[in-house]
Amino acid sequence: MTEIIPKSMQAWRKHRGKMEPIWETIPVPSCPPNGALIKLLSSGVCRSDHNLLTNEVQPHWFKDSFTLGHEGCGRIIELGSDIPASPYAGKFAIGDVVALLAVPGCGSQDVNECPECARDLPQLCERAHHSGIGEDGFYAPYAAISVRGLVKVPTGVTPSQAAVATDAVTTAYHAIHRRGQVKKGEVVFLFGLGGLGFNALQILRAIGARVLVSDVKQENLDDAMEIGVDKADVVPTRKDVRDWVRENGWEGKIDVIADFVGMKQTFSDAQHIVRRAGRMLCVGTLSHDNTVHMKVGIRKRLSIIFSYGGQVRDLEEALGLIAEGVLNPMVEDGKIKDFPSVLKDLEGGKIKGRISLLHD
Ligand SMILES: [Zn+2]
Ligand SMILES: [Zn+2]
């Protein structure tokens, strides 16, 4: 079955100097020799889309205009001419439904060519294409992507689940497994049960960690209890976290802080409530600046660990957990036409979990 590919398509684009997304007609991209042409099924909306639209202090390689959307799932409709002679030969076929990792890196193993990829940090690579982040992404019917960014979607995972898995789940997964190295039986205090934090909660529980949770919204705490968090492990809203830890006998027993909020208060509380030689895992960035309490940090010999993005193996493992039913990312379907209003609702805190936009 050969698909008739149109010459042009409508896409949601960012133009430098314009803070609102523009719905415009652009050419359908051609298939890259080392990649695939994808027909999009679902594209996840992320809070960072707002930042991409409104914050123009961005890396030098950002294009003057580009198609937004960095969380995608689609079907392969064309494979590049270099694939059969590459290590990816036979891994993918036309018709496969794949999740799309926006920043898979260039993959160079030469430190002079790409210090990031050569040190296993492809999510920080500046050489390769960044889908929807300064370069063309997934709020369009078709997208071109390197084969390095493709992960086959297992059966039982919907396109919208797969789309949000590429960012909201993969970022949480990378933070907890690779950066935090959280182990079974460890006590983890989790700040924030939003889009990423709720996925983090499920990933932590799948490891077998004991998770204590804190959020400003009661409904998020209710959701946590619904998936099995004991009421005794939930900090009541408005309760002072340090008092709660002391009163509930957790002082000196919290191995890891997973901060998916990143505000002054959470970052400060984290340093006080974590055990000696504990780890603070920083993922959320609601405050631009936070304070390190030097005496606390040094005397307790804390590790402050930052995490950013994720990698193909994280995405593969995250999709596996979703297929097994261990992880259930909160996502609802929307329509691609509604991107601007969905983004406003997300910014306004009106959306629980995530919305992924279907392409018709
Ligand atoms: Zn994102
Ligand atoms: Zn690279």
UniProtKB/TrEMBL annotation:
Tell me which SUPFAM superfamilies the record gives.
GroES-like, NAD(P)-binding Rossmann-fold domains
Enumerate the cofactors the protein uses. Zn(2+)
Q: Known InterPro entries for this protein? A: ADH-like_C, ADH-like_N, ADH_Zn_CS, ER, GroES-like_sf, NAD(P)-bd_dom_sf, Zn_alcohol_dh
One GO molecular-function entry: zinc ion binding
Q: What SMART domains does the annotation carry?
A: PKS_ER
Domain of life from the UniProt record: Eukaryota
Q: Extract the PROSITE patterns matched here.
A: ADH_ZINC (PS00059)
Keyword line: Metal-binding, Oxidoreductase, Zinc
The UniProt entry, under Pfam families, shows:
ADH_N (PF08240), ADH_zinc_N (PF00107)
Residue ranges of domain Enoyl reductase (ER) in the record: 18-327
Query: Which PANTHER family does the record associate with it?
Result: ALCOHOL DEHYDROGENASE-RELATED (PTHR43401:SF5), L-THREONINE 3-DEHYDROGENASE (PTHR43401)
**Protein family (similarity comment):** Belongs to the zinc-containing alcohol dehydrogenase family.
Protein name per UniProt: N-benzyl-3-pyrrolidinol dehydrogenase
Q: Which organism is it from?
A: Aaosphaeria arxii CBS 175.79
Q: What is the lineage of its organism?
A: Eukaryota, Fungi, Dikarya, Ascomycota, Pezizomycotina
